[in-house]
């Protein structure tokens, strides 16, 4: 697919067919992320591909946030429930980790953001849908413990699969609205 068309076709997909995603497509997506630019060429990202039970355990950790009576949820934390259900519906969850390194956190997060965008665009090019999930932040310690990654910082997740929806483009600001003078 032509690059401009890939960008125009990218949507946040939240409903997926249950069809398994071919290993070759996931490998191509991760290889595309690997080639992303990064601050000082640190390439801080580490990716974990989860399916079936392991993927659902991550979603359950997110859902358990709502079962704790002593936790008061604020603002966007409530969207974690929807994100957990998206994860359960998706055939694949890619988790993105970085090393815990306070000195590089800002640069590493910017680098990971670029890598996530590479993943989402490559998914479109592979005929797949994806959605970037930031709500893992509210339960990242529990997720890292479950997966044996306590020395890493969980930055995000990306749900991937064959789209079972075709959302219309979301409204975008005009160039005049985003260019400062």
Automatic annotation (TrEMBL):
<dbReference type="InterPro" id="IPR000415">
    <property type="entry name" value="Nitroreductase-like"/>
</dbReference>
<comment type="similarity">
    <text>Belongs to the nitroreductase family.</text>
</comment>
<keyword id="KW-0560">Oxidoreductase</keyword>
<dbReference type="InterPro" id="IPR029479">
    <property type="entry name" value="Nitroreductase"/>
</dbReference>
<dbReference type="Pfam" id="PF00881">
    <property type="entry name" value="Nitroreductase"/>
</dbReference>
<feature type="domain" description="Nitroreductase">
    <location>
        <begin position="7"/>
        <end position="162"/>
    </location>
</feature>
<protein>
    <submittedName>
        <fullName>Nitroreductase family protein</fullName>
    </submittedName>
</protein>
């Amino acid at each position: 697919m032509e690059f401009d068309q890939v960008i125009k076709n990218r949507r946040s997909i939240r409903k997926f067919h249950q069809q398994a995603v071919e290993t070759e497509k996931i490998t191509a997506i991760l290889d595309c992320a690997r080639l992303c630019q990064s601050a000082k060429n640190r390439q801080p990202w580490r990716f974990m591909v989860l399916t079936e039970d392991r993927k659902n355990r991550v979603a359950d950790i997110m859902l358990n946030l709502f079962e704790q009576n002593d936790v008061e949820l604020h603002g966007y934390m409530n969207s974690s429930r929807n994100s957990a259900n998206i994860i359960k519906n998706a055939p694949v969850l890619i988790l993105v980790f970085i090393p815990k390194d306070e000195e590089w956190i800002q640069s590493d997060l910017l680098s990971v953001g670029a890598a996530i965008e590479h993943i989402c665009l490559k998914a479109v090019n592979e005929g797949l849908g994806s959605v970037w999930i930031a709500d893992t932040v509210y339960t990242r310690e529990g997720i890292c413990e479950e997966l044996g990654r306590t020395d890493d910082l969980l930055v995000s997740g990306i749900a991937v699969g064959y789209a079972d929806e075709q959302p219309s483009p979301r409204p975008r600001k005009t160039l005049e609205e985003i260019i400062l003078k």
